[in-house]
């Protein structure tokens, strides 16, 4: 993940040319933008994501080839390490909130409320949230490795029910030797 002071390659997935232009102007007003890719469809967004190093995605949920949550679901596997900001024309936050909760988007912006300060804040916060998420994932992986590579018997219990959730192989071998 690049720092905010470095050039950010931005993908804008928006079918409305006026909104595309506005987003390009707003994004380039504060950040050092490397390249801005503007495409009107999810299909074209996939092509860009597969062939280019993208640092932030601004994704409209109403596109000619996709609508609603399907817009982010269809590119989900290509944006695992890329912050995504959902763009919506609706003040109702139902679908954008679902994208935040279930599809790993970092933020959403209602287009009618969009201005330079809001977009800048959203981009900055989205990048920082994604960095924090990656640190958590790395920490969990480190813990998982410590658990599985340790030669001592270990198990993990649910703290409320005391149900055994996972047992390390060394614990199974030791238990068999005790019998």
Largest sheet: 5 strands, parallel
Low-confidence stretches: none
The dominant shape is elongated
Mean pLDDT figure: 82
Question: What spatial order of strands do you see in the largest sheet?
Answer: 2-1-3-6-7
Features:
alpha/beta, 179 residues, 6 helices
Question: What would your notes on this structure say?
Answer:
There is one protein chain. The chain has 179 residues and is an alpha/beta fold. It has helices spanning 17-28, 42-51, 69-73, 94-102, 116-149, 169-178, and strands at residues 8-13, 33-39, 56-60, 62-63, 66-67, 84-88, 107-110, 155-157, 164-167. The chain has a 5-stranded parallel β-sheet with strand order 2-1-3-6-7, with helices on both faces. It is elongated, with a radius of gyration of 21 Å.
